[in-house]
Give the backbone structure.
Amino acid sequence: MELYQGSLDTKEIFGRWLDEQASSNYGAYIPFVGTIRAEDGIEALSFDIYEPVLQAWFDRWQEKAQALGAVVKMAHALGDVPVHSSSYISAVFSPKRRVALELIDTFVEDFKANAPIWKYDVINGERMYAENRSTPMDGSGLLA
Amino acid sequence: MELYQGSLDTKEIFGRWLDEQASSNYGAYIPFVGTIRAEDGIEALSFDIYEPVLQAWFDRWQEKAQALGAVVKMAHALGDVPVHSSSYISAVFSPKRRVALELIDTFVEDFKANAPIWKYDVINGERMYAENRSTPMDGSGLLA
Amino acid sequence: MIKIEFLGPIGKASIQMEADTLADVSAKLKEDASLTQWLDKCAVALNDTMVNDLSIVLKDGDKVSILPPVCGG
Amino acid sequence: MIKIEFLGPIGKASIQMEADTLADVSAKLKEDASLTQWLDKCAVALNDTMVNDLSIVLKDGDKVSILPPVCGG
């Protein structure tokens, strides 16, 4: 798992992950690249991350992937990420395509639902919590 | 659609497709990279392609993708591709992740079932049709 | 005359024949013992468009392609 | 003493309190009007492990984190 201040260097990350697994004999490599869309007048999105819980979440996914003979990777941006640049890359390597196609889907969806990352719209330099696009994590409401 | 003699330059293709869509405002980019696995003593796989029907197949997928607000891309190798190098890259760009995740799955699966490409194992320089891994295309048996 | 081409691993040179429909093509190809193992698992394209109807009427110069089982990727 | 920290957009400084269980933590946090809008949509981690049981017994030095709705990617 890799965290970076600001936009991700998408090509460097894609290529390095490819090289790292070059002799691992995986037949399928599926990255998911998330790019900041220009919409609603934003100039950037900004992110807070709670790293200890994110690392634990990622480690559990790595175990799930290993049980399928696969590997997962993840990189995410911290702080401001301008529109049309990348904030998030995840990837799956697997011997076979079906495992890879199913794993990238469940991995990315669980990431959206349960990775402890908070998103803010940046408009005129001001940071506003993207509350209406945010999802309560599994188990929310325990203390209510 | 891009066809290359021999192994694909995976990083060049990934980066060029990324750059081409840099200002298209797509939020999700999912490439699928297929790499030749070392197994059963092969030194390479080799491919024949019937380009007119492949182009028609790809054009229909491009129309389906456009109807979803998305774009599909594809590159494939012709001839011999040594183990641990890449023979196939496809990709989806889409504004939103659900469309992209579903489209890359159906696009890659239909590619495996209906793209007019024939695969051969290369062992000791000899080319043998990978018959037991091949799938009759939709509509097969018409003339039987 | 129409042209029949055999793609990929079939490894057979193209042939020409007279045929009014794909049903005629089928009847003639079934006489060729070297194709017995192929016809039931091959798909068909007419002038590079996939087709699935034996009653299609052919015209002079048409190209019929025989596509064996595929495995791209 | 246990420490309560409020993550992301909650924008509230950490606090310390005496509490034997997460149920005690819940009772005390519900007295804080600034948290009313948050508690029903926040998840909870104890020493950086996600938890989902109010009867969990706390010990001195434990850290309870309050995690509001997320949107990574």
User: Anything to note?
Assistant: Residues 22 and 54 of chain C are 5 Å apart (CA to CA).
